[in-house]
Specification:
Elements (H helix, E strand, L loop, with lengths): L1 E2 L2 E2 L6 E5 L5 E5 L10 H11 L4 E6 L5 E5 H17 L8 E3 L5 H12 L4 E3 L3 H4 L5 H10 L3 E3 L7 H7 L5 E2 L1 H8 L8 H7 L6 E6 L9 E5 H14 L9 E4 L6 H13 L3 E4 L9 H8 L6 E4 L1 H13 L1 H8 L4 E4 L6 H13 L5 E3 L1 E3 L6 E4 L9 E5 L4 E7 L2 E7 L6 E3 L5 E3 L8 E9 L9 E6 L4 E2 L5 E2 L1 H11 L4 E7 L6 E7 L7 H14 L7 E6 L19 H7 L1 H7 L7 E2 L1
Parallel strand pairs: 5-14, 7-8, 7-9, 9-10, 13-14, 15-16, 16-17, 30-31
Antiparallel strand pairs: 1-2, 3-4, 4-21, 5-6, 11-12, 18-19, 19-20, 20-26, 21-22, 22-25, 23-24, 25-26, 27-28, 29-30, 31-32
Helix pairs in contact: 1-2, 2-3, 9-10, 12-13, 12-14, 17-18
């Protein structure tokens, strides 16, 4: 497959080295290319090479799209960076951003990084969905911000009252005012920008909290720039065709920010900021945007593709526009169901296109890319091969192989109170244990990639001593009971059989008879006790973000759910009439 005569993928070339105890390391033979000193260098480059090209576009009510060119973005970035310096912000006084993606958010973040002021975008859920704002206050205590940004103050009144900030609170009106300031030729922003090195802290991104309390990961310029250079090796078409994406993924998470936004900035592309998301009542905004703009790469989480594929099947105009310029579809954060995969392939064929489906794997601590799919795949689960410069160790852990990472993209540590950095818990070889498990798709062919094999921390044993692989089991149950359940927490630790606490799909009535039928079919196809789910209990209360049961992107914290809902687990294994049995 080619784009403008350039191969979509660069075939991987890998090597393997053995370590003691059955562990081994896989790495790319391709060298990591030179990369910019900082993200601001890419902005300067494209402001010169393509000054009128749109960097950001954002829908403004019924007025169409507000657009900001690279030249305009650079001017605003310098002015905003100067304004932050004048307000006393600096390396130890970061900028805290509470609101979601917007042009003002993007420009202010670029301005902060241009001035060597760390930017810390916080998930809006901690402000807008929380009832006690405890997590938000805890994050602010760690950050000790020099200023806080909210695009519009009204929705954030309760959050701001909970924080009771003693620092400036900026909104979009302040951004508009600061961005228009005229700077002298010897402005301090230029000296601050010139002093940036690879070790300069660009961001503090908080982990999703899907496996515990959110931690503030220190993101250096070297991490972010080296990661984009590594990404481009496997996808050479990026250098020939500036990417255009319609994207909702939040900049408070590494997928939306470090992967997608930085990809656009590095390659001189255009980002249409999607105000929708894959949730009831919000997806119509996404569909409206996709009817107007053709992406060259479309990024989403599996839930987003699940919601999109039906509209592509039924709406010919949407289908034509969506596939008109599309080279690649990319899913991450969870496994795409086989049914959705097949439907996407079929609807692409109806549009006369064969679109590459790709994925990747990483974490907030790895900025984020560790492995990348840079070859054709025909099923979900394959997470690709290590990108150049990044070494992947597979280390025996129980009956699994734990994935561990070493490279320039790995964070120095977590931000602690007082500005200290708590180092990552590296192993004796300097590798960061990710808590995920993986295996080679084909032990005889490294180029076939690595298959995701669940989280080592979630797996448990039945009373028989048999290991249960929670990740793949959960995905299988959701697919088997689609579209009736949205998610599930697997139970059965030290018990005789497996069960699940299941969360119904939003807005859908619970059809107990149909669920019983689907569960029985799923159980009949199971071959062992470690794959047969014998009982489920439908939860009336959705997962709680305050209790750490779920993140705003929908990741379940299995351990938190089972601990908080221990009484429901007990009901599941008792003679409760609400339990649905296979």
């Amino acid at each position: 497959m080619q784009v403008l005569g350039v191969s979509l993928f660069r075939p991987p070339s890998l090597e393997r080295s053995e370590r003691e105890g059955g562990a081994f390391v896989v790495r790319s033979r391709a060298p990591l290319p030179p990369y910019p000193r900082c993200l601001g260098d890419s902005l300067v480059q494209w402001a010169s090479a393509a000054p009128t090209r749109t960097l950001f576009a954002e829908r403004v009510g019924s007025e169409g799209w507000r657009r900001v060119s690279y030249r305009e973005a650079l001017a605003s970035t310098r002015a905003l960076g100067q304004g932050l310096l004048d307000a006393g912000l600096g390396p130890r006084r970061p900028l805290m951003i509470l609101s979601g993606n917007s042009i003002d958010h993007g420009l202010l973040a670029l301005g902060a990084m241009h001035a060597a002021v760390p930017v810390a975008p916080i998930s809006p859920a901690y402000s807008l969905m929380s009832s006690d704002h405890a997590k938000l206050r805890a994050l602010a205590q760690v950050l000790e911000p020099g200023a806080i940004f909210v695009a519009d103050r009204a929705p954030f009144e309760r959050a701001l009252a909970a924080l009771a900030p003693r620092v400036p609170v900026l909104d979009s009106r302040d951004v508009a005012r600061l961005a228009k300031a005229t700077l002298p030729e010897d402005a301090t922003i230029d000296r601050a920008f010139g002093a940036i090195t690879g070790d300069t802290v660009a961001k503090v991104l908080f982990t999703s909290g899907s496996t515990g309390a959110p931690k503030g990961v220190v993101n250096t310029q070297r991490m972010l720039c080296s990661n984009q250079a590594a990404l481009a090796v496997g996808w050479p078409f990026l250098r020939e065709r500036p990417p255009v994406i319609v994207d909702w993924l939040p900049w408070s998470h590494t997928f939306g920010a470090n992967h997608n936004l930085n990809l656009i900035l590095t390659h001189g592309g255009t980002l249409y900021i999607d105000g929708g998301k894959p949730a009831p009542g919000a997806f119509d905004a996404t569909l409206r945007n996709l009817r107007e703009v053709s992406s060259t790469i479309y990024f989403n989480v599996p839930r987003g593709f699940d919601m999109l594929v039906g509209h592509l099947e039924s709406d010919a105009a949407l289908r034509e526009r969506f596939f008109a310029e599309l080279d690649m579809m990319f899913y991450a954060a969870a496994a795409l169901s086989p049914a959705t995969w097949e439907r996407l392939a079929a609807v692409a064929a109806r549009a006369g296109r064969h679109i590459a489906m790709t994925s990747a794997w990483g974490s907030t601590e790895t900025s984020p890319l560790v492995t990348q799919v840079c070859f054709p795949i025909d099923r979900a689960g394959v997470i690709g091969v290590p990108v150049p410069g990044c070494e992947l160790a597979l280390v025996p852990s129980g009956d699994k192989l734990e994935l561990r990472v070493r490279g320039p993209n790995v964070a120095p540590g977590y931000l602690a109170a007082g500005g200290a950095v708590e180092p990552l818990p590296l192993d004796e070889h300097g590798f960061y244990p990710m808590g995920d498990a993986g295996r080679l798709a084909d032990p005889a062919d490294l180029a076939a990639g690595v298959v995701f094999d669940g989280r080592t921390s979630e797996n448990f044993k039945l009373a028989s001593g048999t290991w249960v692989h929670v990740g793949e089991l959960r995905v299988g149950l959701i697919a088997a009971c689609s579209p009736h359940i949205a998610d599930a927490a697997i139970t059965g630790h030290d018990r005789d059989e497996l069960g699940a606490l299941v969360f119904p799909a939003p807005g859908a009535p619970v059809d107990r008879a149909r669920l019983a039928e689907l569960l029985a079919r799923h159980a009949a196809n199971a071959t062992t006790s470690s794959t047969r789910i014998a009982r489920i209990l439908v939860m009336a209360e959705p997962p709680s973000i305050d209790a750490g049961e779920i993140t705003d992107k929908g990741y379940l914290n299995q351990r938190a759910i089972l601990a908080r809902r221990a009484a429901d687990v007990a009901r599941l294994y008792a003679d409760d009439p609400d339990v649905i049995r296979a």
